[in-house]
Amino acid sequence: MLVEVLPAAAQPVTELPPCITDDLREDAIKFKAEDGVELPGVVLGSGSTGVLLASSSSNSSCDWLPLAQELADDGYQVLFYENRDFRLRDVRNAFDQDVLGAAKELERRGASSIVAGGIAVSAAAVATVAGRIPGLKGMFLLSPYRAFYTRTSELDAVRGIGAVQVPSLILVPEEKQPQDAPEQVDAEEDLEAPNLAEQAREVADAATNATLESMPGELFFTTLDKHPDVRNRVRAFVRETLPAPSFLDRWLGPIAGAVVLLAMVVAVVVVVRRSRPRRAETVALD
Prior knowledge:
20% strand, alpha/beta, Rossmann fold, two-stranded antiparallel sheet, transmembrane helix, disordered N terminus, AB_hydrolase_fold
């Protein structure tokens, strides 16, 4: 099979997939990864508590859509995005750069605290750069690779998760998985690899504050629309780790600001009225 390879200087346009319907495209954005690659994404919800859902060669924005909508309904600002184009020859697997760019975009949009998550390779990407994600409060890693090494990437989840102390939830499928989840990918050689559960256990063992759980599901939990139990577990973890502002909290700030503004306007009006010279009173003489 022939694959078109573009010059390194060219940036093929990455588009959102058809699963992002017209109503969701109103919330579509474009942001730049840490290395300058432009990526399309979607932001649902708003506020200071953010959730970052990372993509890579092992998953796409479609996989995150059900969870993203539920988290937005829970009161979070959620950013998920489409993975970079495979034709980006020299940087096509630099998924850690996408995570950092997405985190900075969330921060730019007002999220001061972030929980980040990924699936398989994107989980490894999140863990790799965990120490550089602004305001990181927790991570959820679904079937994480412990490492992903190629000519264009060096992702090391074990080293990355060991460098932070935030709570981490690591989920793997209960069913025994085939030996097809590589310990590391290398362009030069094909390495025999342990299954996903063993890789996830190594990632969890390297962490200072991680919970490893197994749940019913397929290889990577990529079809999250078919795994409500996994989505509910992730939502519970996010709520425990980073509670979303209540309805009162979300409106208290704007209401207080409006009251202060009104008080300032009233004060200005009073001062202006007092500073005006009084009109001379005319007294009618009989």
